[in-house]
């Protein structure tokens, strides 16, 4: 029998929250699976997509058992001051899915409205953010991480690193109480993924030499399809975080697309001006940097701010990737897809620009009749340096916390199993790990010609004149 919904519940807001979460989920599967599968060398297409598919599933189980409550639950009191606001009490949330969404979760500077949707909608919405973060991290270690090690690393990292960072900034933790803001994950997701991916790449070690110097994308049209899913899926990424289908949601979606288009064009123009080419890989990089940079700022900037941010997001990561990285110690780490630049640097740019371009007239509305509205006063709007300083402190904390924790988790895991595949398996690629060819007869040897225990690959990689230019998004091609 049909029963009327509770008085607090808004069908429209509930529907939008689930739709926004679904759009974010589509960024991972199939979005990033397709993007990675197209950008990597053809012998790694299946393994890259499998890393995405596994992480999405593993994080959901971890999230339900402990991750959500660590990030958004009642704080664990370990002592005075900061020690009482580091993370939430771990517990499963299966028994809370029917409760109303008015749990007073202290998001964003310690204040949060009564939700207009069930808590189950909040749990699912926050899950897809948790899931995409290690998937983005994977971009730094594609083409060499032991898949068994990845299977253990993902749930451990998600619970102990991602969820704690989420609590510090979104769950009412000490960074939120300090006054730092992160609209939709520029720090919690992208800086975390970029720094952790870079550290993981350094700890695990590089790809084979032949793969480092010659790593052409195997299907750029497929990569563009994945990139398109990522771009449009971002409407849910930033459009869902006001938690209501309202004015701020619409402004955040518009700002997201404006900044992304601007960053893409800026990167493209930089490629043409300094590298004399109009690169699809470069355009995808610029798009990602725009999406990442606007994420911590989407509902806090006006249109001019989004435009300026897009220019900075296309220019600064381009410089760090193509000029600074190759000429410093950063270039010695084999960051496969350049996540340090496209996520950590871009996320830092967006987070810091909140302290400069934040427009107090752009209020984060929590719904009609709500009193928990938040505004950010940037330096250019008379707010002084206070917000910029808070953003800088939060950035430093997230960078340090993720670098140290990722390093420790991997070092402990390495005691029990190798983090890097054997060189013999690295020569072969997908078939050595999964005993499958993604497209028989195209990506490798035809399956009918493969003996049950015989590996399939295209033969040894050649390193010649064509290998002098790196074809990875992380390179300077």
From TrEMBL:
Localisation: Cell membrane; Membrane
Transmembrane region(s): 15-39, 51-72, 121-142, 149-175, 187-208, 220-237, 249-269, 281-298, 304-325, 337-357, 388-413
Gene3D superfamilies in UniProt: Ammonium transporter AmtB like domains (1.10.3430.10)
GO molecular function: ammonium channel activity
Keywords: Ammonia transport, Membrane, Transmembrane, Transmembrane helix, Transport
Superkingdom of source: Bacteria
Topological relation to the membrane, as annotated: Multi-pass membrane protein
Ammonium transporter AmtB-like domain span: 15-434
InterPro entries: Ammonium/urea_transptr, Ammonium_transpt, Ammonium_transpt_CS, NH4_transpt_AmtB-like_dom, RhesusRHD
Keyword Iron-sulfur in record: no
CC per GO annotation: plasma membrane
Region entry Disordered, spans: 450-477
PANTHER family: AMMONIUM TRANSPORTER MEP2
Recorded family membership: Belongs to the ammonia transporter channel (TC 1.A.11.2) family.
Protein's name in the database: Ammonium transporter
